[in-house]
What we know:
The structure holds two protein chains of two kinds.
Chain A: H1 4-8, H2 11-14, H3 16-26, E1 31-32, H4 33-40, H5 44-56, E2 60-67, E3 70-77, H6 79-100
Antiparallel strand pairs in A: 1-3, 2-3
Chain B: H1 2-20, H2 28-47, H3 53-81, H4 89-114, H5 130-146, H6 154-174, H7 182-214
Amino acid sequence: MNPEPFLQLDRVIHEKGRLAIMSMLAASPELSFTEMRDALSMTDGNLTTHIRTLQESGYVSVTKSFHNNRPLTTCALTTAGKKAFTNYINLLEQIIRQNRR
Amino acid sequence: MESNWAAEHLQVIRTLMERSALYRRALAPIMIFNGVIGIVAAALGWRLRICPPQAFIIYWAAVAVAAMAGSFLLVRRQALRDSEPFWSPPTRRVMQALLPPLAAGSMITAGAFLRQAPVHGLGPPLTELWLPLSWVVLYGCAIHAAGFFMPRGMKLFGWAFILGGCVLLAAELAGQSAQPQHFLYSHAIMGFFFGGLHLAYGGYLYFTEQRRNAA
């Protein structure tokens, strides 16, 4: 069996919490911090840490604004993030195909 | 082994992507609000004997506008409370799903409103009940379409409108000639479907949402 696809998996995305964030952002143009926190049942601190890691890798952009005089933090996938996520999915599919043969 | 792990990962990703697209606002207050409006309006319409088709249409169009305005306010209040944008992608998707059947209903209503004489082949809109039952069926279609982006039984709720409306329409079309007193049934139909069903579903959601939040 070729271990190559498994070794190529992006370690930043591969972590469970960050994979969940990337998956949610891949399905929406943008999501607010509270939407993600509620949907993923994460604590504020946990979510902030994961988002910071993804932001430092250039996969997620974070926008801070005010909505009706209340702070609103929204996240979205960057072009690099979309590409990395697509690669990750392709590698998973490749692993499945390889093991079926 | 690795294959199973990868397949599970893909399944998790799929589930999360679907969850991200779901509309998550609490629906119980919206359903209860619409149910109360429906029942009160039906009782009032019956009591005031609003029977000419045009008056009936204007009356229920005004009720629909009030119900929609109230629902939007409730959704906006929830969005403000959660510090989230009102016009979020899931809200947009739900609105896009609701729009075609509601637009069809509006156009049929406009046609019935403009043509005061009995519509050829269909008869008077109220004495043969086809107009309120068309609203019921089309509203069910709208709810069912929106149910693809909403959790928890919304599609089933849509089916209740569609099936109930179709059964009554079929029974009416197969029945005897139009009865002038049928306008009273029109209000009863509106009250049952738009009042009673909303209220029942709202009550169900109220208790199940509370239980889920407590868990």
